[in-house]
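Budget justification note: compute hours in this period were largely spent on complex prediction jobs such as the one shown. Inputs:
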Amino acid sequence: MFEAKVTIGLKKGITDPEGATTLKSLHLLGFDTVKEVRSQKTFLIKMDENDEKKARKKVEEMCQKLLTNPVIHSYTVDMKRV
Amino acid sequence: MFEAKVTIGLKKGITDPEGATTLKSLHLLGFDTVKEVRSQKTFLIKMDENDEKKARKKVEEMCQKLLTNPVIHSYTVDMKRV
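Corresponding output:
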């Protein structure tokens, strides 16, 4: 059994409206030392697999087919045996 | 300057519709070894602060005031000097 942690962020240069809105709201609340906010999405995926290499390859495939939009997203995959 | 990484997930027992839908879609795509999908949200917050303890306290306050809903969310904060 493996747990894959897929962290999905926006590529450099792609506007992050959620991060921008959060930054504005934090300033309005008085947190004026905050300089930047970026948002990310994470999926924790538990898989019934024995081979880490094979499992990772499947996760990469999931990212390309469903989890990310390659035009705007970059992502990282961390595998952990559980 | 510190970067806080705030990872927000759902508390145990709270339904994760995004995770459930993703799991279903992965099964439909043929990834039948996937057993569970959980979704999380991350904010990367850059702050112009010198004292880590103070900075962390502010981030905790941000979480309580804006970033999380204490009824359904649990969160972790990691501080990194940048």
